[in-house]
Structures are given as C-alpha cells and as structure tokens.
Amino acid sequence: MFDEDFWDLSGVKFPKGVRSNVKRLDFTGITNPALRLTAKEYVFALVVPDHERVLALPGARRDPYKPESAFNFCVQLVRWMNFVTDQGMSSLCEVMQEHCEVYREFRSHRSRKRRQGSGPITPGTMLTILRPVVDLAAYRELFTVDAYRPGFTPWEGHTVSEVAGWETYALSSTPPVTEEVFQPTVAAALYLVETLGPLVAEELERLLEARASKGGQSLREITSKHRAAVTAALDRLVLEQVPLLAVDARQVTRRIKRGWRPDDPLLHVDVGDFFSKATRSRYVRIADHLVEDLRPLLEPAVAKAGVAGAFGREASRVPSADDSQHLVPWTLALTGDEVRSLQFVLLAACRVLVAALSGMRAGELDELTADSPQPPVTVSGGTQRFKLSSKLIKGQEFGGVAEEWVVLEPAWRAVKLAARLNQDRDGQRAFARSPTDFLHKKLREWVNSPAGQRLGLAPIPAGPVNGRMLRRTLALSLAHRPGGLLAAKIHLKHVSVVTTEGYANRPGGSQGNLLAEVEREQEKSHLKLTKEAFADYRAGRMPTGPGARELIKAFEHIDAQIKDHEPGTAAVLEAERRLENLLRQQSKHLHLQTANYCWFRDPHKALCLKLAGTPDATKPLGGMCDSARCPQATHHPCHLPVWQSQVGTGKVFLANPRFPKGEKRRLEPEVERAERVVDEIMTAAGTSDGGE
C-alpha cells in the first residue's frame, strides 16, 4: 500500500482494545504531495525499523512502532506538514528554528471548537505532537523528495521530552482511588455481580428471545372478532389486576413526535403486544388511527390495572446490600430498554470488579472472552484456584502474547457473567469497549439512583476512577494493609495469595510486575511505620508486648549510633539520612499483623513456627500469631482499638446466660489476656502525658 495515500489496515488482526479508526492511516490531508511522500516514508521507517535503508541511519529508532502508535504520528504529521505549507514554505528545507517555536506555541493550546474546551496541552500530548517534528531530522537521508536542510535539527541540544516539558518519573505518579470512593464502588460491584448478575442475565435472554419472535406485519383493520377477543382479555387483566405492557421510552418519544399528547392514558401502553396476545396471533404493528378504534376499550382497563414493563414483574427476593436478613424484590417491572440499560450497568460492574481485584490493565481486560475463565484447579487443602487466560499487550510485540492470571473467584465469575451478558459466542470480547472511568460513572449513577438505593447499596461519592488508579490502589492496599479488608467480603490476604501464586506460576508476567510494585510500596510503608515507632520511643511512648524489650534495645542502639556519629557540613541532612538507613535495616524485619507488629529476626524464636512445626520458615504464619506470648511481637497505640474490640466482644458473650459454660471457661482467659494488653498499651501511651 505504500504508493497509496490511504493505508487501510483493517485486514490486520489488531488487539481487541484498538479503536477502529486507528486501522486507517490517512495521508491525503497533507496538501503538498512532496511532503506527503516524506510523511509516508517516515511512518514506514517507524513500523519497519529492520529495513536495510532504515538500519543504515545512525539516529533511527530500532524498536518497531505498533500500527496504533503510527496512527498518532500520522495525525501529527498531517498537522505539521500543513503548518509548513501555511507558512508559505514549499519545502522542508526552508524550515527554521523560528518556525518550530511558532508551531509549538500554536499547538500548546487546545482549539476552542473542541468539546473539552480551551486550555493548555498536557506535556504528554505535547511530546506526541513534537516528536515527528524533531525525528524528521534523524531520518533525513532516508527521504527521497524532501527533507530538512543538512545540519538542521529542531531544538538542537535538547531532547524532545525537555522541549515538551515531560518529566520521566522513576516511581508511579498515578494516584490511588480515594478510600471513600473505592470501598462503596467495589462493594456495589460485588453485590451486582454475585446477587443480581444471574437474574439480569435471565431477563436479558427472555428479552432477546421475545424480540426475535416478533413479526413485522401491520394490522389493516379492527374486526368485530378482534373487539370481542380484546374485551375478554381486558376483563381478565382487570379482574386479576395484571398491568398492561409498557413500551420503551424511545417509542414514547416517537409517539409524542407523531402528535400524541404527553398526558395520553395510552401513551405508554404497548398496544401491539396486547392485541397480539389477546387475539392469539403473531406480533403486529398497529397504526395510530387503529389505536383510536380500541381507545374506548383500553382506557378504562388502563385506569384500573395500570401499565408496567414486561420484565421482572415477579422478581424474586434477594438480601439487601446493607442487611442480609432483609429481603427485597431484586427489581421493579422493567421495559426492554431498561433491561438493556441494566445489562450495561452489570457489564460496567464486572469490568470494574475484575480491574480492582486482579490489577489487569485495560488492554488485558479487552482481550478477555468467554473462553478466558479456565476450569478451576483443586490444590492442597481442598481449595480451588481460578485462572483467566488473556493476552499481555503492553510492552510486547504487535498482537500481544498469551498470558494467565490467577484471580479470586469473584473476578473469575465476573468474566463469565460478562461474557454471558455480552452474548459472547465466537471468541469476541467479554467486556464492552469503553474506558473504565466512563463505566464507573455509569455504575455510580445507577447505585446512587432510586433503583440502587432500594437495594441498600451505599452511595458512591463523586471522584476520579480509571484503570491505572484501580491497579495502583490494589498495589497500595496489599502493601499497606495486609490481612485487612479491601472491600465487603474481599480479604486482602486472599488477593495477596493469588497474586503471589500467579507470580510464582509466571515469573515474568503481568502479575509479577504488579507484585514487584506491591513489594516496593511495602518497603516504603514498613519504613514509615518503623520511623513512627522510633519517634514514639524518643517521645517516651514505649512499645509493649513480649518483644518490647528487644525492640527498645534496637532503638537504643540506633539512637546511640546517631549521637556518636559526627556529620560533616550538612549536619541535619546527614543525620536524617543515617537515621533512615539504620531504621531501614530494622524495617526489613517488620511484618504487619492485625493487632501487633512482628519483628521477625529469628525464626527459631517465632511462636507461630514452633506451633506449626516449621522452625526454618522464612516468613511468619500470620494465621497462627499469638502476640501476647510471642517474643518477637510488640503492641503500639495504633493496635489499641483492635484489642478493645476483642475485650468488648468477649464480655458480651460472657454476659450472655445462654452462652455454654464450657465456652465461657475457655473464653475468660482470652478476655483477661486482652484486657492486660489494653492496660499495657494505655499505660505506655499515658507516660507521655505526665503519667496520667
């Protein structure tokens, strides 16, 4: 296709997440034919860098650009080439640095005609805009008709990133989803997938079956036989108080455009459906003038029986989201379009849930199909592991490579549900091709609507949510709060286990990258907590617990090393760095538990490993932790609420006369021990307040 000015790549098998317009590279917008050829040669060199002519260029890029990236450069080339022509230049040889500066200033603001409004272009977008302008100099010798003059390079001595104002971040700069948005979002998505998902899928299948059976014939006249059948059917509906079927909102809009009154009693009635069932014939379309013939019969019946959607009329009862003992109908009566809308909300919930619990990227979610959920595998202990097969797109060759993710069962079920809702039968995508932020917006709107509130779902506050933010939130949640709750019914330890297992199964895969990010954040979090514990020690708020003495000794040693060390000129900065290095060594031994810190220095001293009979293990067993007796466990003020809660719960059981006496004898020592821990923590914390 090189000689053509329009490259249609629709025959190429693109990843499913690629937009359809990316498959067409259009150079016809460049007004100067010579510049058009230069643009095609440049794009070809980006996509095929191993061509012998391209390999001869010392400054050419060696990694092939994917066609979707080439599309972005094609768009920017059209604008740059036409800017050159609009400046009165017939050749790239006439381009000067001044022209490049003018172009950068011209493109630095969005067009006021765009829907997003005017405003400065972001550095990332500016980088894409200016890269072809600079790269044309590196490919000068490749171009056969027109090129920059020899020796000219735009912004010579500066990289494109510097010119665009783009900064490369060593660590992820993506913020996590805020807690007040994340928790109700994942809780709502879980509820929709697990409770409403199968019910919505059944109604959707009923809807598709009903629409497929509808005919397209039009009724010519209302006969006396028809009137008799309609009258008998209406009498039955009124007697049994069964509402007539309602039409979709779009049909109501069409009727109003045809002249129907907004207060017409029959405006929302599906007259054709009722007539077909009453006369036991195939579905027919009834013209407006024939509806007038039936109006005297229909209006009294509508006034007595009402109008309602055809789907969900006898909705089964499900537990409310905020009270599992309270049962409510899962839906009110729905029209066909309302079922379709609910289908989209469920698909949005499925995608948000899988992204939040697995950390999969958008390109990887786009590749999921009905065949992606693999059969569960039973592992030791009788538990099951659930896997999703997809493709890894980012950083891979064009088309991606096969990949597997070990996920939680809710995420696995969400993909199966999405494929069912999307009617995926031939390997097409399980999810709709929509950005996660748009899907989350639709999910939030439904949850906050009367339909979601009727089911007891917690409202979702407004706030940004996208795929990158969900992945970042998962990484930070695993790093900062192991063993805690990610959202309703989802335990972080479960997510951590399957993510770690996925990493062990495929060490170079996507889950390995996620786990590496988790470990980086975990190191930072542990260092921060160690600093806080050291600051408490210096302020006189001592740790408690069996391991407190060892920890205090370690802090005393660190404090002594800081005092003995004589820093150079930058005294404060040097002392802080040295303190951080010393505390980092201590933080490497920290393992967070629900109600204590575990300073896992010596496996042979760990009570959990002794109880399990595995004294040579490299990590503590959190499920067997008994911090009141383990010599490496400490308690701090942040653990006080957990122990107070245990004391309160234990006393409630002990005060219950129906609680078995044997259980009371077993529980009493545990409550006493918890009370002792509470007293120790409060006493240690009170020393900084004058010994109160």
Structure description:
The chain has helices at 33-47, 52-55, 67-86, 97-107, 123-138, 160-164, 179-213, 224-240, 249-257, 271-278, 288-305, 336-358, 362-366, 409-421, 436-447, 450-454, 467-480, 492-505, 510-538, 548-564, 571-587, 607-612, 640-655, 661-686, and strands spanning 6-8, 24-26, 217-218, 244-245, 284-285, 307-308, 317-320, 323-329, 377-378, 384-392, 401-407, 485-487, 490-491, 590-592, 597-599, 633-634. With 692 residues, the chain is mainly alpha-helical. The strands form seven sheets. Strands 9-10-11 form a three-stranded antiparallel β-sheet. The protein has a three-stranded antiparallel β-sheet with strand order 14-15-16, with no helix packed on it. Strands 1-2 form a two-stranded antiparallel sheet. Strand 7 (317-320) and strand 8 (323-329) form a beta hairpin. Helix 7 (179-213) packs across helix 12 (336-358) and helix 17 (467-480) packs across helix 19. The longest helix has 35 residues, at 179-213. It is flat. The termini are far apart.
Summary?
The protein has 692 residues and is mainly α.
Strands of the widest sheet, in order across it, are: 9-10-11
Give the amount of beta strand, in percent: 5-15%
Largest sheet: 3 strands, antiparallel
Radius of gyration: 34 Å
> Would you tell me the structural class of the helices and strands?
mainly alpha
What is the mean pLDDT? 83
Q: Unreliable stretches, pLDDT < 50, 5 or more residues? A: 112-117, 687-692
Percentage of residues in helical conformation: 40-55%
Strand count: 16
Number of helices: 24
What spatial form do the alpha-carbon principal axes imply?
Answer: flat
N→C terminal distance: 84 Å
